[in-house]
Amino acid sequence: MNTSAAPTTTSEADLAARLPSGFRWGVATSAYQIEGAVDVDGRTPSIWDTFCRVPGAVHAGDHGDVACEHYTRMPADVALIKDLGMDTYRFSVSWTRVQPHGRGGVNPAGIAFYDRLVDELLAQGIDPWVTLYHWDLPQELEDAGGWPVRDTAYRFADYSMLVFDALSDRVDTWTTLNEPWCSAMLGYAYGAHAPGKRDYPAAVSAVHHLLLGHGLATERMREAAPRKLDIGITLNAATAYPASDAAPDREAARRADGMGARLYLDPLVHGRYPADVIADLASEGISLPVEDGDLATISTPIDVLGINYYFSQKFTGYAEDGSTVDAAGLPVSRTVPLDRPRTAMDWEIVPEGFTDLLVRISKDYPGLPMVITENGSAFDDEPDASGFVADEGRTAYFTSHLSAVADAIDQGADIRGYLAWSLLDNFEWAYGYEKRFGIVRVDYDTQKRTPKQSALYLRDLAQQHRTR
For this protein, what reaction is catalysed (predicted)? Predict the structure, then answer.
């Protein structure tokens, strides 16, 4: 490990001093992106194993069969987290490793890996944060209809309890779902993620059943909890800015905010879907498959809201030709540039959108503690001869976004931690291995791990915060 100190500046010390006592410092990963070992110890295919085999679905035909070999290199990776001074590690559990067919009993060999991981983390003084679902639905459940069908919510709750029963004696923080918007919309509406479907009404049904699965699992975990535990969900959210004060632009931003944020937050917190979004969907002949009691289950109180943030967007309700309705007669809604620098993902860097989002959530959904469960950036990293990456762009991204978090805290937002995405360069979904988000470089040929400048920056910032 490169142990040279990252540059320390007065501004970094000031930033550390602005964050509250007890603030979590951590990193995050997900199972399919790092574990590899896809056919080991009883694991069966998930929708991502299948999707990666679809020609053209993933960059260069990449897949997660090997990924970062975390399944066999786990103890060394935990030691690396310790060396980087992180006190929290958010990881996801592979559903098909724990429950190979999406139903039935626990797979002892599969759950044993996470049992060892939790023990290893605790031995190093690192708090394990479990995410139960990070997009790797068992293929057999997808074959039975996937998230658009109600039964999948019940299957998820059953699976969640297998993990909970095995680990809740040692794990204090639980996340049910990671980014249900991505699971529903990228997976079932836009075809960009597994399972690669393009069926908008089915995607809307998936939204409801994902949230229902969250509620069912939360109810059951709460009832079975051996002590006070923190249970929550992680949403990817952003600020939707109107391109102008013109009514079509404000309407476009409202619609984007409704489908991207309020469609999830309102039922989770207020026990209702937003009326304007219901009306928008009805205008397209689409309805949410809500049954009696569903919203009470979905709004089962949570202890923490995870927020994943990468960018914000500006929306206009005008087409390029000036019209305000599309060929189907629906209102136009499209993004226009904010004219900001961009990451390698072509995402604009908008830290003030982060502040605006966090302050808005704190005001519209009060009393809900937040933790930043993902924030980070992909850049075209260039290693030196030793493998070290002086990733100044990523380091600057962390500085600006942690400053945005501090700004939100100054404005009253209750934010209790920051988990960088990601610990390792890894399989970046449809982008394969082309995009690198890691604060640690992975040489995919040798699996050598080399902390980047950004990792050393976060290490030093966390240390300054603890000793201020």
Answer: Hydrolysis of terminal, non-reducing beta-D-glucosyl residues with release of beta-D-glucose
